[in-house]
Each structure stands twice: as C-alpha cells, then as structure tokens.
Amino acid sequence: MRRDAPAARCEGLVRIYPSPSGEVHALKGVDVVVPAGRLTAVTGPSGSGKSSLLRILAAQDRPTAGVAEVAGTSLTGLSARRLRALRRREIGYVFPRPGQNLLPHLTGTEHLVLAGRLRGMGRREAARQGAELLDVLGLADRAGHLPAELSGGEQQRLALAQAVLGRPALVVADEPTSELDSATTGQLLAAVAELTRDGTSVVMATHDPQAAAAADRVVHLRSGAVAHEEVAGRRLAVVDGEGRVQLPEEAMARFPGRRVAVELTADGVLLREP
Ligand SMILES: Nc1ncnc2c1ncn2[C@@H]1O[C@H](COP(=O)(O)OP(=O)(O)OP(=O)(O)O)[C@@H](O)[C@H]1O
C-alpha cells in the first residue's frame, strides 16, 4: 500500500437497517478520510452511527449505498471471499471489551503467533515481530501470561498488538478504552501514539474526551452525518459533495424557521435569517 494515500476513506456512505418498526437510517451520507500513520477518533452521542461506520470500514458490514475504500481498494464491489481476504490481511480490529479480543487458553506470544499466521506470516517471523511489539507496548514481561493473568489495560494492549501485527493498512478500534480507568487509558493511548509514529493508521470510536484529545483528527457524528471535524485544534464543518453542511447546534437556534438567506461575501459565505 502507498503510505502517502489515505488508509481508508468513504464517501456518501449510507447504512439503513431494516427493523420491524421501520427502517433505521444509521448513516445518511458520510464522507470521511482516515489519513495513513495517524490516529483518527470518531465521536458522537450514543446512536449517532459510530459503530455502523466502523463496522463498514472494518469490512464486517456493507453499506446500503456509497463508497468505502481501504488501502485504495473499494470494499463495495468485492465478493464475500475477497472481502474476507482483505479483512484478514489489511484490517486489524479491537473490540471494546478486553475479553472479546482474546482467547482464554492462549498466552500473549501465542495470540501474536496466531494473528501473524492468519495474516500469512511464518511462525518464526510472527513470533519475532510479536516479541518486538510486546516490547514497544510495554508487555515484554507478560509474553507468557494467559489473559486471566493480565490486567484490563494489559489485555487491551495485547489486543492492539494482535491487531497491528503484520502491518495491516488500517486498525479499527471500537471504544477500546471504555472499560479502562484514566491511568490505563493513558497507557493504551501512549501505545497507540507509539504505533502511529511507526506508520500504523488507527480509527477509533470513543466517548472518552481523553481518547479524543489524543487523536490527530476527530470526526464528530450527529444523527448519522458528520457534524464537524477537528484538525490541529480547529473545528471544521464538512461540506458534502452535494453542498450540504451540518450547522453547529448553537447556530441552529438562530434559524427557528429553518430557512436561511445565503450571501457570498469577499471572505466567505454568510447565512442570515431571511
Ligand atoms: N443491526 C441493527 N439493526 C437495526 N438497527 C441498528 C442496528 N445496528 C445499529 N442500529 C441502529 O442504528 C443507529 C446507530 O447505531 P450505532 O451502533 O452505529 O451508533 P453508535 O454511535 O455506535 O452508538 P453507541 O455509542 O451507543 O455505541 C442506532 O439508532 C441503532 O439503534
């Protein structure tokens, strides 16, 4: 994969779930770029579509409409077999609960050897890279331990090592710090920062302000659409391909009649109450 290209991107992503009480429009045309070698956080209230977006980027689900690409490959047109192969090679996934990521009867090293084998690596190479990763993530002295002998934070760092082994194009983490306290969250985020410095691309859903603050880019969802992004401390509204922008909630209050007069000025675009 070209490391200057984005690790993943999606455009006009729509996900509609059928349900007995009617359709649920979880994603309503989402455009997101996940830059390579960076941590991108996806935030937003409960039900705003974070997991729906991440499941599609992780090739675990298909969109109803729109484009999703990982490492330059469109996920939408792939057969189930090719999607599975891409997922195995190019995507690492971390679940929210430490126990969901690990098998109770495998040691740290055995988890990493298995992850490497699934990515097509030889046992010896997987063990070598696994040992390197455990060292980077501060788990070298836990290599022979079973998950039950690790703390929640250590389990999540092992899950991260497992997701990163073999350098997939994208690591997707759904609320990986949700069950960790502030100190162990800090250790996990430091581990993520170490990995992104080394070129790993991570997209992480989170409710945790500490985790969002550690990200290079924050994509904030509201009701299935991108409300705004934060890059280098600046809040940016997102204009989609059709020219739609979500106004900040504070700005919505200015337009109770839901109609605006749009004026192009020398230095921008002005929205006024008509
Ligand atoms: N399989 C499904 N079938 C029907 N509706 C679903 C399904 N999965 C999610 N939804 C609905 O889609 C919307 C978005 O859900 P999603 O899980 O993506 O939100 P979220 O931002 O990750 O929420 P949370 O922070 O609570 O995990 C919600 O209204 C949810 O109830």
From TrEMBL:
GO terms for cellular component: plasma membrane. GO terms for molecular function: ATP binding; ATP hydrolysis activity; transmembrane transporter activity. Gene3D superfamilies: P-loop containing nucleotide triphosphate hydrolases (3.40.50.300). SUPFAM superfamilies: P-loop containing nucleoside triphosphate hydrolases. Keywords: ATP-binding, Nucleotide-binding, Transport. It comes from the Bacteria. Residues 8-248 form the ABC transporter domain. PROSITE patterns: ABC_TRANSPORTER_1, ABC_TRANSPORTER_2. Transmembrane segments: none annotated. InterPro entries: AAA+_ATPase (IPR003593), ABC_transporter-like_ATP-bd (IPR003439), ABC_transporter-like_CS (IPR017871), ABC_transpr_LolD-like (IPR015854), MacB-like_ATP-bd (IPR017911), P-loop_NTPase (IPR027417). PANTHER family: ABC TRANSPORTER RELATED, IMPORT ATP-BINDING PROTEIN. This is Putative ABC transport system ATP-binding protein.
